[in-house]
Amino acid sequence: MDCYTANWNPLGDSAFYRKYELYSMDWDLKEELRDCLVAAAPYGGPIALLRNPWRKEKAASVRPVLDIYSASGIPLASLLWKSGPVVSLGWSAEEELLCVQEDGAVLVYGLHGDFRRHFSMGNEVLQNRVLDARIFHTEFGSGVAILTGAHRFTLSANVGDLKLRRMPEVPGLQSAPSCWTALCQDRVAHILLAVGPDLYLLDHAACSAVTPPGLAPGVSSFLQMAVSFTYRHLALFTDTGYIWMGTASLKEKLCEFNCNIRAPPKQMVWCSRPRSKERAVVVAWERRLMVVGDASESIQFVLDEDSYLVPELDGVRIFSRSTHEFLHEVPAASEEIFKIASMAPGALLLEAQKEYEKESQKADEYLREIQELGQLTQAVQQCIEAAGHEHQPDMQKSLLRAASFGKCFLDRFPPDSFVHMCQDLRVLNAVRDYHIGIPLTYSQYKQLTIQVLLDRLVLRRLYPLAIQICEYLRLPEVQGVSRILAHWACYKVQQKDVSDEDVARAINQKLGDTPGVSYSDIAARAYGCGRTELAIKLLEYEPRSGEQVPLLLKMKRSKLALSKAIESGDTDLVFTVLLHLKNELNRGDFFMTLRNQPMALSLYRQFCKHQELETLKDLYNQDDNHQELGSFHIRASYAAEERIEGRVAALQTAADAFYKAKNEFAAKATEDQMRLLRLQRRLEDELGGQFLDLSLHDTVTTLILGGHNKRAEQLARDFRIPDKRLWWLKLTALADLEDWEELEKFSKSKKSPIGYLPFVEICMKQHNKYEAKKYASRVGPEQKVKALLLVGDVAQAADVAIEHRNEAELSLVLSHCTGATDGATADKIQRARAQAQKK
């Protein structure tokens, strides 16, 4: 173990720092890093180099080249820069490269050099040019801060939702500040800058002078400043060679270190580990790297080559032309296990496992020592935790074997932490591979989450690896394999050297009916790439018509969209397409399209009935649909026309249409309605009252109620109302008037075609038994019993029923007999029944 700790360097008495190699870089750099604009993304992200950034000693005709590499130095993209001079490069949280130009324009490129978009930092920046820029990260997204030639600051806290803020002016600032940085405090972005011995904090409202507490005297200038990865701590490098470290709010001092070097450093970054109390800053000069913290001495490394520092969540990445290394504080679990002469439970367990493999009895001695102290569970947990922080797979396996060995002697140790660590390390080792080039640490991986890691693999087009990870971790298909396959398909449609049919077939064979995959999204990407036919072929595989139709409309394939909408049976979808077609086509073409789609035509007619009546009439005319046209004019005569003349004219048009449709019944009925309307108008003029819009029956009834019997009879003759119906109408009207004398005269005017039972029923309905009895005696034999029962003469009804010897009538009378008053009648009926049965 002492050999294993050979690269450990103590910083004070409480912390060790180690630096190990991530990759041996094979990139073919033609220039030194100092001659390039450099940007490296955190979380093991890619590296961007812009060579020859408009240096005066270079020929003006030589165009700069933008190169993008993985963290292991594998080229991802290279493009000739054809835009304006670039001041600064930086990566967003989504691994998009932001290139800030001198004119204030920010160009955004993808990981593979594909241009995404651009935006401007405002007219003031354009007029005054950009002196310097910073790309920073907040909880809202990635931000850009600009220092203009007028020595004013402009920033946007989120380039995804661009809102520019012009920061307040710094009093008396005549030249560029010696150093400055962007801070994020209380969800708000600030600018901290140094002007000589003074520090100023700019927020959206004011410029405030601030003083670091406990700063060593004699400072005349701040040469460099660095904010920690989490924006909680700040480091200041002064011209006296002192490094002040404290909180980013400048309210508390953590420590101060005199490095005895007054030359300004090339870079200064924080090197801290989450949940660690140790705070350290890494400072780099041309050939020297220094780690300083709350200790009287520092750790120093010699840099053989020009190097670049990348701050990370739990350390610092350092890359040069030949190597890529990681410097970090040794985690507590690793320190406990591996430090010299350690008697920690994890250290003893690791030794016990090694002795067990050697078949030595010392294994038992170590185990007994741990168990006697009751620390076996702690030992297993220490080994599991330390395995996560190791970079070399051999050491990971050794620690996990020790943890597995210790678990065998525990009754109830939950296996989840061990299993999850094995899974996480397998994933981490896969993405750390040289050909993948994402050197994530365990802490970074947990902070990033597996979903973001999968997104980054997809962004690098490493689809097979991403799918293998999903299957290994057994992620739900919608979150894992399906999502990755959808991204793969979106990338596949961009391959323009393959035919549309081959691409569509390949995508369908790979995706099939995979849940969570939307063919419409893939088709939309194909359409965005200018491959309309491919998009249509892909939409054939989309089972949801609601997703097919909007894209087909967007692609101006409206007729195909209409067919798909009709096939779906979704009327709302059909209406959507119809309204789109109506606005897109001229009237004639629209109607012709509808004629070829009967269902669509029917639905559009329903729509027009409620919204566009004139369009409905045009549809009927074009189709020579005289039957519906006649019905349309009848409805229009009642809905639109108020004058009698207009209504009659509309009805005449309807009658003509019915004749053309060879519907003589409808035509005759319409003509009768016209006659009735004219007659009702004449009746209103002569008699007063309300007759218009009454039915024929109601008109006759109204005349009778008004005492105009002759007019009612004449109207019945004119419209050939049958006698039975006329008698019913007159009977009902006279009974409503309670004109019993006139009703009696009417009943004697001639033989009733409806019989006299209705007279009895109507009189009883008006509660007039006296009048009802008059007509009961005139009722025919077949209805006599019913009439007598209606007027309440049960005894006489019984006599008639016995006389008729009708069993049904006898039962009817018997059901009307009550025990108290009609007992004799009931006995009489029973005797008649018995006598009839004897015969």
Automatic annotation (TrEMBL):
Lipid bilayer topology: Peripheral membrane protein
Secretion signal span: none
Keywords from the named record: Coiled coil, Endosome, Lysosome, Membrane, Protein transport, Transport
Vps16 N-terminal domain: residues covered: 4-420
Ranges that cross the membrane: none
Entry coiled-coil feature ranges: 349-376
Classification via PANTHER family: VACUOLAR PROTEIN SORTING VPS16, VACUOLAR PROTEIN SORTING-ASSOCIATED PROTEIN 16 HOMOLOG
MF annotations from Gene Ontology: actin binding
Gene3D superfamilies, alphabetized: Vps16, C-terminal region
Name of the protein in question: Vacuolar protein sorting-associated protein 16 homolog
Assembly: Core component of at least two putative endosomal tethering complexes, the homotypic fusion and vacuole protein sorting (HOPS) complex and the class C core vacuole/endosome tethering (CORVET) complex. Their common core is composed of the class C Vps proteins VPS11, VPS16, VPS18 and VPS33A, which in HOPS further associates with VPS39 and VPS41 and in CORVET with VPS8 and TGFBRAP1. Interacts with RAB5C. Interacts with STX17, MON1B. Associates with adapter protein complex 3 (AP-3) and clathrin:AP-3 complexes.
Organism: Colobus angolensis palliatus (Peters' Angolan colobus)
Subcellular location: Late endosome membrane; Lysosome membrane
GO cellular component, one term: lysosomal membrane
Task of the protein: Plays a role in vesicle-mediated protein trafficking to lysosomal compartments including the endocytic membrane transport and autophagic pathways. Believed to act as a core component of the putative HOPS and CORVET endosomal tethering complexes.
A biological-process GO annotation: endosomal transport
Residue span, Vps16 C-terminal domain: 517-835
Family: Belongs to the VPS16 family.
